Amino acid sequence: MKNTLILLSLSLTLAACGQVRQATTPDLQTLAATGEPVVNEVYYDTPGTDSGTFIELKGPAGKSLSGYTLTAYNATGTSYASIALTGSIPASGYYVVGQDSSVPGVTQVNAATDLYNTSSSVRLTRSGTLVDAVAYGSPGTNLGEGSSAPAVSAGSALARTPDGQDTGSNSADFRAATPSAGVSNGGTGTGGGTGGGTGGTPKKVLFDLTKHEDAGNSDWRIDGAYSAYGDALKALGYTVGTLSGSSITSAALSGVKVLVIPEPQNPFSDTERAALTTFVQNGGGLFLIGDHRSSDRDSDGWDSPEVFDGWDGSTPASVSSTLQKSLAVSGTYGLSFSFASSFSDPVYTATPTGGTHPIIAGGSGTADDVTSAGVYVGTSIDLGSATGLMGNAGKTYLAANRVGSGRVAAWGDSSTFEDNTLSDGTTGTYNNWPNLSNANLGRNVVRWLAGDL
Description:
Blueprint: E1 12-14, E2 19-21, H1 25-33, E3 38-43, E4 54-58, E5 68-73, E6 79-84, E7 94-98, E8 108-109, E9 120-126, E10 129-136, E11 157-160, H2 170-173, E12 174-177, E13 204-208, H3 227-235, E14 239-243, E15 256-262, H4 270-281, E16 285-289, H5 304-309, H6 321-324, H7 329-333, E17 335-337, E18 348-352, H8 358-361, E19 373-375, E20 381-383, E21 387-392, E22 395-403, E23 406-411, H9 438-449
Parallel strand pairs: 7-8, 13-14, 13-15, 15-16, 16-23
Antiparallel strand pairs: 1-2, 3-4, 3-11, 4-7, 5-6, 5-9, 9-10, 11-12, 17-20, 18-19, 18-21, 21-22, 22-23
């Protein structure tokens, strides 16, 4: 049987009535927390003729799997394969059920692991009780946890990243990865893994807070309106934190892979600009998030387009020479934030403007693609050497560029990635993170900047 996208969703089969009961997410998380194994990786579609497919479990070393069963379901929720597990979890913590003996580190060989290559589910049960569930693609009957994981292309596996992480949502826990039967997918299970699943030292992503990014009615903090953004990056295996203090220095950027600067309110000094330029030239990733003109949240005369581009010669009325250039993005990164935008600009839905780029394609099938994103009154991007990726009405709102050994991306609206949880414990008005492809855009930009796309 040709491997089909199988949503690994281990199902509780009620033998008496022949029905499948779907357990709630809390039930799944409780069982996982008490030492139960989880489905950690599924490789269902090999290039060409199917061979070497596998399902990998992660769990406590030495745990007996007597009474455990893997059941595969098609897109309508009908089971088509059942695998009774034998033996126990090896000392490595990974139990691999392979289609054939060619699978590295295989623990049990069972031809039924040749799964469908279409939207599907796989479930792990213990003596009829549901333990874990994974669904992927767009099955008509989702027997997984939360929203289903993305479908992956032939040659890629669906991998839980970090290993063993179970947030209750397959879309948050799984991503496309190079098949890695019997070894780590990358990550530690606590959000400190390596983005991209490449193993080794975790890649660090910092959100800047040195430029009053939480001023006024903005709350672009990972413990505030950008908390969903920060959590999504942790789920991908990145170490996520805040760059605080009064300035950005080379020392502060040491060990950082990606720096996100969301709608800065204060200008950058010549020294800070030099530190950031060196950071990017040496392989760092920089994500610049702007907003419309007249968005001066702290009443110091600076709004984010001016902070990124440099003093406009008007407001504030007087600026010292060490701050006039501010970040000078046009000369350093080949793009700028348009001074022609205003608060009266309409709400746009930006869409891809042609061509193929990893940020738009997502790298792992349609579930990670960016098809549209909201611009909730922002500013457009003027292109120099950068490439425009998304826009509306002839204006560019997403641009990307390679600078030296590093990468830079710019997006024209800070509200795109906000949720409605604020750092002071109150609830905000807007929850844009789950709208359109906003979340995919936020994730994919960082993944590209980190070199993982």
